[in-house]
Amino acid sequence: MSEVSGSIDRGDGVQLAYRLIAGRTPGVIFLGGFNSDMTGSKPADLAAFCAEQGHAFLRFDYSGHGASGGSFAEGTIGRWLDDATLMLDRLSAGPVVLVGSSMGGWIALLLALRRPQRVAALVGIAAAPDFTTRIDAMLPPQAREEMDRTGVWLRPSQYGAPFPIARALLEEGRRHLLLHQPIPLGIPVRLLHGQQDPDVPWQHSITIAERIAGPDVQVRLVKDGDHRLSTPRDLALLRQEVASLLGQDRG
Question: Is the pLDDT of residue 160 over 90?
């Protein structure tokens, strides 16, 4: 099955880019991380896997990310959740398995709560719900001064050029916090996390598992894994978990 590229207008003139493989259900939707895009190794590997197995697969860029329009600095968790909801509603059918990486894990949890009738299962890869609170707590004084003055702080990144952290992102993120209370999900959830993750501590996945109300929650720790979990062995583990949730026995 071939992958088709396209874009849809989210209703305000901003075009959201996507790549879609038609196929049988359950389909798979990949939700990327903060300041990432849909061309990474994990969504690309899952696209190839789903095409091979005949399952529908959707990957996309949030507004301000990758090939989509809009300003990254103007994005918020709620805005990107709305982007993901639009993609789910407009470009998928039937039950889906959500696969969320880092911030995408937070978006996936929120989307599963928003559309419980559509989401059959969820995989988190170094899932980072509530990460905005950690950024806020760790802001150095000069960053707070810059944010107060301009509304944005350019945060250094080990993955490339500095990227903007907007005060609106941190403030709006408080409306979507999950880990202070039980998360009322009863679907199967699989959480993969590297124990050498410098960005999101692996214990975070244990906390998520404790908060989710349903009984079918499993955490898989990769002792030498980093935040991205993109080595061939990591990708094979991801395929194995997704295949299991799709009702298959092979990875």
Answer: no
